[in-house]
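Retro notes (design track)

What went well: tokenization of the new backbones is finally stable.
What didn't: we kept losing track of which sequence belonged to which structure.
Fix going forward: every design gets posted as structure first, then sequence, in one message. First example under the new rule, 737 residues:
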């Protein structure tokens, strides 16, 4: 190819490249870059409603928007926006205004793409590259949450950005756009679910005409809350009220009083709301100074309450009267539900007073000897403790709110005990005895005898309670541990619970006398069933005696008589001396010592004629082990105090309580009073935010717009024109040749 031809080819190539740059290359550059990483700074003033003072509080703020392209999927660019808002003075983050958003956009048109991002958005994300003098539909990300929760439609969240003219900004020619939205419902106030929230927004943006870059921006956001009538129980009620004081309780296991310093927490929470009533959970817990829960003071209930009148709903609650004082109390008496007596009590209006600088009404509830029920006694199904409540509760109530500023409570539960001199139905015990045992033809052995007794059934006979008691005795050789079968047996005794006497028609045989000493043992002789010979023996009262550190009655059985012995199979001469040390209140045998001998008459055994010669066939020495004495003494010490309560009236519980923190209560009452007076039934501004792009960001955005604009002009006009000029020059050279 000659030189002239090469010049022509060059000219043609320049003519082809020139329009390609303008119509193909440059348009592909007009997009949001996939490596976008931009931080924009704003300054502003934020006002928020202080719900305590019910006043708007303003502060200067700094806002940072960090925009990053995170991923490109086909024709969709995903962009993450991190928004941080800080108090300009303290540099502390304002968490409720900080957020993260994900957008899915067309990188060329900058339109939101449905199905991408954290919200299904419509309209423009921002203005497109090569913005025109026309109106644009732009998505308002302030309304993302309202769309997510279904309070508004997507159409409601998009606003028109109206073109309103041209204007120089930071040395850059811009198109000015203005958009606004008013009275957009955005949901409910988190602290008060019944309070509707509304949004007003106004925005002005200055957009560089070639790049679509927002060079400057100013925005004003307002949120309003429409409060209903607040003279009612809040639907989001969830509070805990604390009382402190002390409690004195009768421990029914040892009849001793226990005193504790306590904290009582009364937790009240609305768990369900209906149009005409709320379901309210009311839980009371008490703990002592060691953190132990006091079960006697625990209570839990869920009831339906009218939130306006505070009355319990009869068909949906087993309570009546008022749950608490209504909002806006009057100088009159109120019928309150009283959990101390599970009934309605009158709270009498006493007068008007002042606490901590606020006016309060004083009400008093006074109760005397109110029967509150019977308390079962374990093991005594035929009797119970009757309980009576007496007490005074004083309330100091802020009249506008019905809030109880202070409460003081003094109460007592009196217990009326029945006769407790009876063997309980859950009677059970084990006694270990040590001794020596000898049978004829066997060596003398040291033994341990274990006697287990247990009430297994209850019978009634003409109004008298009879216990069927299993009496099991096992005897062991101490050296070998072997069971000595002839010294083991199991018997069943029918015993009158109140007298400890054998019931003839019960048990495994007919017996008489007492099975054991009865509660409330008297100074007298008792006929006692003797299990050693299966016959009654006389236990004679000897004297009062302090034994093993406890006051006892000493009884003694001394016998020398002829009885039939089933083990030997003939009559024997039974000689015994048995001593019983009995704690008189309980009838418990604290200690026992027994020396018994059984003899046979050989002549009588062979010929049936009783002679003068008697031969020992059985000897037993027996006494309680030291461990058994210790255990029985402790049990008697405990039980005797309980039995002493028989047919008496004593305080089972005394409680003294008052509000834990009166200053906190006063503060809370004043806060509620202000809220009711200023918010009830009113539309109130709760947020006021004005912000604008910082001078730094305006400068940076303008400089960036200038650079990108120049690059686009250079590639779209200057380079193509230069190529055309080169092509014409080459064409001229070719024609001259």
């Amino acid at each position: 190819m000659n030189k002239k031809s090469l010049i022509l080819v060059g000219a043609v190539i320049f003519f082809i490249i020139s329009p390609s740059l303008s119509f193909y290359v440059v348009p592909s550059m007009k997009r949001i870059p996939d490596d976008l990483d931009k931080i924009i700074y704003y300054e502003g003033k934020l006002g928020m409603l202080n719900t305590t003072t019910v006043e708007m509080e303003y502060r200067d703020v700094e806002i940072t928007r960090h925009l990053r392209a995170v991923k490109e999927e086909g024709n969709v660019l995903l962009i993450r926006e991190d928004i941080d808002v800080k108090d300009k003075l303290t540099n502390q983050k304002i968490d409720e205004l900080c957020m993260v958003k994900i957008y899915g956009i067309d990188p060329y048109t900058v339109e939101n793409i449905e199905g991408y991002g954290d919200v299904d958005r419509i309209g423009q994300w921002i203005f497109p590259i090569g913005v025109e003098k026309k109106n644009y539909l732009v998505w308002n990300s302030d309304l993302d949450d309202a769309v997510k929760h279904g309070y508004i439609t997507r159409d409601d969240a998009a606003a028109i950005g109206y073109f309103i003219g041209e204007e120089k900004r930071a040395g850059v020619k811009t198109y000015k756009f203005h958009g606004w939205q008013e009275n957009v419902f955005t949901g409910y106030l988190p602290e008060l679910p019944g309070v509707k929230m509304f949004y007003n927004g106004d925005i002005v943006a200055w957009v560089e005409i070639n790049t679509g870059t927002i060079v400057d921006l100013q925005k004003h956001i307002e949120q309003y809350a429409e409060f209903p009538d607040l003279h009612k129980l809040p639907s989001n009620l969830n509070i805990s009220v604390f009382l402190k004081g002390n409690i004195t309780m009768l421990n029914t296991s040892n009849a001793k009083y226990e005193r504790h310093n306590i904290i009582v927490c009364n937790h009240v929470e609305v768990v369900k709301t209906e149009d005409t009533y709320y379901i309210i959970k009311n839980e009371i817990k008490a703990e002592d100074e060691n953190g132990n829960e006091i079960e006697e003071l625990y209570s839990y209930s869920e009831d339906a309450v009218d939130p306006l009148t505070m009355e319990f709903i009869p068909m949906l609650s087993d309570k009546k009267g008022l749950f608490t004082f209504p909002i806006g109390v009057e100088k009159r008496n109120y019928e309150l539900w009283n959990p101390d007596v599970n009934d309605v009590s009158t709270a009498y209006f006493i007068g008007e007073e002042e606490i901590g600088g606020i006016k309060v009404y004083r009400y008093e509830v006074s109760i005397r000897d109110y029967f509150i029920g019977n308390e079962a006694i374990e093991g005594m199904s035929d009797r119970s403790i009757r309980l009576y409540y007496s007490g005074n509760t004083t309330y100091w109530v802020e009249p506008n709110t019905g809030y109880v500023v202070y409460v003081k409570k003094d109460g007592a539960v009196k217990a009326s005990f029945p006769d407790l001199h009876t063997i309980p139905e859950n009677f059970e015990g084990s006694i270990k005895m040590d001794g020596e045992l000898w049978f004829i033809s066997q060596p003398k052995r040291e033994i341990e005898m274990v006697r287990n007794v247990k009430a297994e059934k209850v019978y009634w006979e003409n109004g008298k309670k009879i216990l069927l008691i299993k009496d099991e005795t096992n005897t062991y050789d101490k050296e070998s541990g072997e069971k000595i079968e002839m010294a083991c047996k199991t018997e069943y005794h029918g015993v009158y619970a109140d007298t400890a006497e054998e019931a003839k028609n019960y048990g495994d045989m007919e017996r008489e006398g007492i099975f054991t000493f009865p509660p409330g043992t008297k100074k007298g002789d008792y006929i006692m069933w003797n299990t050693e010979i299966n016959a009654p023996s006389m236990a004679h009262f000897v004297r009062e005696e302090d034994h093993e550190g406890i006051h006892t009655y000493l009884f003694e059985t001394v016998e020398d008589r002829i009885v039939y012995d089933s083990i030997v199979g003939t009559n024997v001469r039974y000689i015994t001396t048995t001593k019983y040390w009995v704690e008189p209140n309980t009838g418990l045998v604290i200690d026992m010592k027994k020396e018994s001998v059984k003899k046979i008459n050989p002549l009588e055994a062979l010929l049936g004629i009783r002679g003068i010669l008697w031969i020992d066939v059985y000897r037993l020495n027996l006494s309680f082990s030291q461990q058994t004495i210790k255990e029985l003494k402790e049990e008697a010490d405990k039980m005797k105090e309980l039995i002493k309560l028989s047919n008496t009236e004593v305080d089972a519980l005394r409680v003294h309580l008052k509000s834990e923190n009166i200053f906190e209560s006063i503060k809370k009452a004043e806060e509620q009073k202000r809220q009711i007076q200023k918010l009830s039934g009113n539309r109130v501004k709760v947020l006021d935010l004005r912000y604008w792009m910082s001078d730094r960001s305006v400068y940076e955005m303008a400089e960036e717009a200038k650079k990108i604009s120049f690059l686009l002009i250079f590639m779209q006009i200057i380079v193509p024109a230069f190529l055309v000029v080169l092509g014409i020059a080459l064409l001229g050279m070719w024609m001259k040749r």
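Added context from the reviewer: The helical segments are 3-29, 144-148, 154-157, 602-607, 626-643, 662-679, 695-736.
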